[in-house]
Input
Amino acid sequence: MFQGLQLLIPAKADPERDAVARAWEVGGGTVLRVDRFWSPPEVEPAKTRVYGNDTFCLVLAQKLGLTLESPVDDLLLSVDASWLGREVLGSTLEQVVTGPFPRFIKPQVPKLFRARVWNEPEALLAECRGLDPKTLVLSSEVVDLRAEARAWVLDGHVVTCALYEGEGHVSTARSFLDTVARQTRLPPACVLDAAWVEGSGWVLLEANAAWGAGLNGCDASEAARCIAAASHI
Output
């Protein structure tokens, strides 16, 4: 399955990455654990894939000339509103602090600040000190999440799905996320998260890049297939 492909992962041990590494090797590929990722080893980019945290993968991609496949940052603003089960709005940092609170707020570009429920604008502004007021954000009304599920998607279909918070039926979560995957323009591989909201059922929480996502209970072999499609020259 991964014959001739080399996977670069961080040198530091991690149970989920280690599981992916084992699946990669079982599938016929090789794994190279990289410590000094800012000075990568001599590898053939066309036969190299990456999996790890954002900084690790982004730096290696730049050094090796790889393209990383990621869902668009504003995906939630373009999907069927019935999949969201809550009001989701796009705005800027300076706009969102004038709106109602509490509110779940996250940056459109991941990890610029903590994605969480913010109870008042002062705390959010303190968190975002130094960021451009025009920084794009997503905000949503606060809802009670009873369960959360993760699905790995390859070529528009869910290949593995698991619950990682709460209790629920993984089969219905998988069916819902497979519908989202088939009817949404996504990269060749990505990860979708869903939550069970009382009164709304399964709703789409967010989309993430396969090259940087944790397994969250999903099958490592299927996730590895997605990771193989998530970076290329």
Notes: Residues 23 and 221 are 5 Å apart (CA to CA). DSSP finds six helices and 13 strands in the chain. Helices lie at 15-26, 54-64, 93-96, 121-127, 170-183, 220-229.
